[in-house]
C-alpha cells in the first residue's frame, strides 16, 4: 500500500509547476470537510427521497405542459405582434412596386428581429408566392424551384386560416423536413390580399430538451400527442405502446393508473393541455419508484462532488492570490501552447520567447513577400485619385512607405486587348472566361520587360480586363522617346505572344504625383480612341504632346450634378448642367471624337439614372429598337446635342419624377388628414404629424398649405368646429363637454367658435346652454 501511495505521489507531482504544488497541498486540507459533508448528505437524502417520490409524476407533467404551452403561446403572440407592427401594417403591395429591394430588406429585418427575440425557434422564414422566393435569416434568400413545393405552398396560401400549427415535418419548405411543429400565418394578418406566408419552425429537440429536464428515472418514457392523436414527440420511446391510448380514454379523468408494456409495469399519468388540447403522457417504471437507495446514492454522489468543487474553489482562491503575478506573465506569453512536463514557468517562458522571436521573423518575411501586391493596390488607388485629399507631406510619407520614388517624372501606359469573334477555321484561341488568364500574361510580360530594360515602374491590374504601367523616369533628361519605344516593344511582345490585337494608350509626363490621375485619364482616353483611329498600335495622349498641352478633362462633377438634378426632378438645374457640359467641351473643340465620346458617356449616365428611377427606355426614345448612340453620331453641334438631350431625356425623366413626387405628396397629405380626423380631440401638433410622415415640420407646413390652400392649424380648427356644430345639433351635451370632446378648453372653444361661426355655441343652439 505504501508503494502505491509513493508511486501516486511521484506521478502527481511529476510536472514542475509552482501553482500545482501549492494547490495540491491545499486540497489535502479540504478532504476531511468533504467527507463529513458527504455523510451528512447521505443521511439527509435518505429521509427526503421517501416524501417526494409519490408526487413526482403529476408535477413533472404539469411543468412540461406549462413550459411547452407558454413557449408556443409566446411565439404565436410575438408573431401576431410582428404582423400587426408598423412594417406589415403598411401597404406592402405598394412598397413592392416602388421599392422592391426595400420590401425584402424590411422582411429580412423583421424576421431577424423576430428570430433574435425567440431563441426557441429554429428558423423563421417568409415565402412570397408571386416571386416564388423564400427569405430566411438562417438559410438566406432562395427561390423555391420545385413545382410540387410551390403548388403545395399556393394551396396553403389559399386556405382561410390566418394561423395554424403544422405537426411533424413540413417538406414544402427547404430545411423543414425533420420532426417538429411549424406555425404558419398569413402576412399581413387579416389582409384581403396577403403577400406571403410566415413560417416559424420549432424543432423536435426543443420539446425533447424540455422533457429531458424533467426525466427522473431510468426507463421513464414521455409522449406528447396532438388533439388528433398524432405523435408530436417523445422521450424514452419512439412509438406509443399499443393499447395505451385506448386505456387513457377509458380511464377518463383518473390522475394515474398502471399499465403493462413489454413485460414492465408502468405508472401512467396523463394530462390534457387547455391551451391546444395536446395530451401529455408520462410512464415511469414502478420498480424505479421503489428504488430509493439508488436515488440516495446518486444524491449523495452529487453532494460530494459539489463539496469537492467548493473545496477546490476555496483552495484556488487562497493560492491564486500568491501565484497571480506569475500566472499573469505565464498566461500572456503562453497563449494556446502546452507546457512541457519537465520545465517550470521560468523554463517555459525562455522557450516561448524564442518561439515568438522566430514567429516575428516569419511574419516579417511574409510581409516582404506580399509587398509587390500591396504596392500594386496602392498604385491603383493613386491612379483613381483616392489620395488627392492628402497634403504633400502626407503623400510623400505614403510613397516612401511603399518604396515609390518621389523625385522622378511619371507617365502611364494603359494596355488593352480585343478578343476577335473567330479565328481561321471558325475556332477561337481564347474564350470570354479566359480574360483573367490574358491579364495575368500581360502583367508578367510587362514586369519582365521592365526588368530587361532596366526601367522602374509598377504593373497594375485595373480590374477591367486592362493593365496599366506606372513608369518612373529621371526628370533631368527627356525620356519621351524611351517611353514610346518601351510601349511599342511591349505592344509587339504581348501581341505576338497572345496573337491578339493589342492597343497601348500613352499619357504625357509630369513630375507632380497629384497629377497622376490626370495622366491615367489621358492614357484611358487614348485607349478608348482606338474605336475611332484604329487599334493594334501605340496611341499617344489626345493633345499629342506633353501633359501641359492637354487642357481637356471630362467634367465628371458636372455629370454627377446632372444625374442628381434628374433624380430630384429639377428641370432648370438639369438644363443648366447641360449648358455647363457644352461649355466644358470647348477645350476639345479640335477633337470632335472626344466630344462624341463625352456625350456617349453622359448619355449612359442619363439612361442609368432613368433605369434606377424605374423609367423604361421605350418611354424615352419611342421604340425599344431605337439606337440613341447612332442618333448622337448624326448631330453636328453641341447645341443640337443639348436640344436632343433636353427633349428625349430631361423632359420625360423630370416629368416622371415630378409625377411620382406629386403622387407621394398627395398620399402623405391624405395620411395627415386621416390622422387629424381620427385624433382631433387630442392636443394635436404639426410636429406630431411631421414625425408620422417622416418630414420636417417646416416642409410639411408648406406642403399642406400648397395641397389644401389653408394652413395646418386652420384645417384642424375647421375639423373641430364642424364636429362641434354636429354635436350642438344632435346631442344635449353641454358646451363644456363639447369643448372637451373637440380638444379645446371651454373659454378658448367659445372664442374660436364665435370667430368662425359668428355667434357663441349657446347662441347657436338657442341660448339654452351655460357657456361658462
TrEMBL record:
Pfam families the UniProt entry points to: GGDEF_2, HTH_18
PROSITE patterns listed in its UniProt record: HTH_ARAC_FAMILY_1 (PS00041), HTH_ARAC_FAMILY_2 (PS01124)
Coiled coil feature spans: none
Keywords for the protein's UniProt record, in alphabetical order: DNA-binding, Membrane, Transcription, Transcription regulation, Transmembrane, Transmembrane helix
Protein name stated in the entry: AraC family transcriptional regulator
Segments passing through the bilayer: 21-44, 298-318
One MF annotation (Gene Ontology) recorded for this entry: sequence-specific DNA binding
Annotated source species: Paenibacillus whitsoniae
